Structures are given as C-alpha cells and as structure tokens.
Amino acid sequence: MISINNTETILEVRDLTISFNTYAGKVQAVRGINFNLYKGETLAIVGESGSGKTVSAKSLIGLLAPTAVIEKGTSMYNGTDLTKLTDKQWDKYRGREIAMVFQDPFSSLSPIKKIGKQISEIFTMQHKLPKKEAKERSLQLMRDVGIPLPEKRYNQYPFQFSGGMRQRIVIAIALASDPQILICDEPTTALDVTIQAQVLSLITKLQKDRNITTIFITHDLGVVAHLADRIAVMYAGKIVEYGTAEDVFYNPQHPYTWSLMASMPDMDIEVGEELSVIQGSPPNMLLPPDGDAFAERNPNAVKLDFKEHPPMFRVSDTHYAATWLLHPNAPKVARPAQLERRITNSLQRQGLGVDGNG
Fold this sequence. Notes:
The protein has 358 residues and is α/β, with parallel strands linked by helices. It has a domain at 247-349. The protein has 11 helices and 12 strands. The protein has helices at residues 53-59, 87-90, 105-108, 115-125, 131-144, 150-153, 163-175, 193-210, 245-250, 255-262, 337-349, and strands spanning 9-22, 25-38, 42-46, 68-77, 80-81, 98-101, 181-185, 213-218, 230-235, 238-244, 313-316, 319-321. The strands form 2 sheets. It has an 8-stranded mixed sheet, with helices on both faces. A hairpin with a 2-residue loop joins strand 9 and strand 10 (238-244). Helix 7 packs parallel to helix 8. The longest helix has 18 residues, at 193-210. 37% of the residues are buried.
C-alpha cells in the first residue's frame, strides 16, 4: 500500500470484492482491491475493458447493477463505509459528496429537457435555491466549463450541442453540488483527439480551481500521462501495479503494464515497425485462474504464475507490483526493447537521464 507523508486520505478501499449473479454463474468482477485516495490528487485506474475499473468506481457512488453483490471489503469515505449504505442513505452522498462523469454524455442527458433546466434543477432540488439564483449559478457554471454564449445555449436541447460541448455540460452538472470526489469514467472516449485534449485540460483546471479529488478511469495510459498523480493498473479484477505516474511510466514492473505501454501508438515508432499488441484474451471471470491471471498472455511467465497469484512486491515507498518476476529468486527478465526505447526517448525529451533524474 502506498504511503505519502503529510497527505490527507479522503477514501480508503480495503479488500473490495464484487461479483455479479448471472444465468451462467457468478462473475468475479472485482477481486480484493486495495487503494487510498488522497485529497486533491488525481488517481488513474487503467486497464482493458472488463478489468473491473468501472465496477469498482460505480461501487463508490452506489450505482451497481441489481445483480451485483459486494461480497466483502470496505470503502471508507471520511469515516463512512460506502459499501453499507442503504438507497436512502446514498441520497446524502451520491452527486453531493461524490459525483460521476460518464463515458457517453448524450445518454447522460435527458433529450427532452433544455440544458439550462438540467443544470439548474440541481440547485433548486438539492440546494433549495430560488429559480432566479439557480439560473445565475447555472450560467456561471456553463462559463466555467467553457460553454460559449451561455445565456443563449441555456435554452437549447442536448442535440443542439456537439459531443465535446455535451461532455462539458455533463461536467457542469457533476460540479453543481461541489462534490469532494469526481469520478471520470472514460470521459473522452467518444471524442476526437483535439476535443479530447480540451476536455482533459478542462478537468485539470477545474480540479485545481476547486481542489477536487479525481478518479480517472481509462483503458489508455496515454490519456493520463500528464493528468494523473498516481496510477493503479487493473487486470482481471485485481490491481497488479500501483505507483506514482513517474513510477509507472518510467519504471513499469508488471508484464501487463509493459504490454499496455508498448501497445500505445506514439511518435517514437520507427518506419515499418509493427504496432505491439497484447496476445490472447482476458480470462473468463466465471472461473478466474488460481495463479496470475495474466500468465497465459505473458511470454515471461514463470511456473509459479500458473499456480499462485503473486503478492504485492515493494519496488519503492510509492511503487508496488504483483508479479513473481520481482521475487529475489526469479529469473532476470528485460523489458521489451520497444518499451525501453520509448521510456528512454521520453526521458530525453524532458531533459532527464534514463534513471529519471535530471
């Protein structure tokens, strides 16, 4: 577990285990994850689709499907265990203390309500403000998230906005209650690269201006390269690597993290070089393997990987990884050459040495 001195912990997740009851059996979606969230930081949770990222996040805002079961574990937010809240008790926290921005902004908005009404009803219903004051607060929020001509656009419908503008509106709605934690679930996936960069810049600015703590969920490590303070890499319902952004980007330890990073297209790819891909498929979570779930896809797997899941090995005070390759008796395995080249080039562009020091 990461420990950062002189940092206030706002959320502590311990041994969180979540499954889904299906016609085929019990799907083990989240399998005993642990992490801390520190006030004012951005924690990125990264992994392929189906790794348990979104399920973990939805449990923190009480939006799990009816078939979901929290088997065990705790999620302590300012002394309250979120896993024990009833539907009525969630009204005090959901949207007020913890808010969420979803992947598809169009499905998050009512198509038959004007944008202004969708924002202002947060102020009238939750904060009990008069309609006039609620409208003024809503217009200011629209300005804060970069909506041009807010007085005009206040009376327009979602279909009259672009995808990027709709996502800004969804962010405004999430911020209307001044939440302590903002969860962003793949908020840029449906946007083109230019608009994606604008939305990421907006989230960063709002976080600093409002001192919001952020959990950012994505399958793309490149998206959070300059956004995250710390990164948790998830695979098959478990956190397999956990550290600061610098730890994970410049000194990745888990073979799955290597594969994720090597498969990112970037400017360092050479002419004629094939893009790296992660071979194989994620395991069936109806019957997850006893050992390291990534073993079948890991060309450097050792025999123990197929029998026993590795513990979290300490790399440094801020960096941990669950791989048997970190065991003192494990064979020495070099990271992929393509990945090493990218790390070296990235450090050189920033004027740093290969050890990360200037």
